[in-house]
Write a structure and sequence with these properties.
mainly alpha
């Protein structure tokens, strides 16, 4: 059975993949244009990538918190976290689609 933590892990991993694509495009744009208007989105994507990497670390690798998240966090808390991760993934998908178009 798939638990809430598994859905959160997948959503965070998808977020990281989308952000890696955005960092690539926005990094290339900044390298070519050297404008603060290209630096802003690049930094945004890098910080958001770091936030998602931090979350994935806690969900998967941290010896104490990974176990706690898997067993002790109540369902309403997980449902709220999953909604936030999935909404972020949808927003990043739209942003990636418009950026790559």
């Amino acid at each position: 059975m798939v638990g809430w933590i598994d859905v959160a892990r997948v959503a965070v991993a998808v977020n990281m993949l989308l952000l890696a694509g955005l960092v690539y495009v926005w990094g290339r744009n900044y390298y070519e244009l050297r404008s603060k208007h290209t630096l802003g989105p690049l930094l945004f994507a890098l910080f958001l990538f770091g936030e998602n990497a931090f979350a994935l670390y806690f969900y998967l690798l941290d010896p104490l918190l990974a176990e706690w998240f898997s067993t002790a966090v109540p369902d309403p808390a997980w449902q709220a976290m999953v909604v936030l991760h999935v909404l972020e993934a949808v927003g990043l998908a739209v942003l990636t689609w418009t950026t790559w178009d």
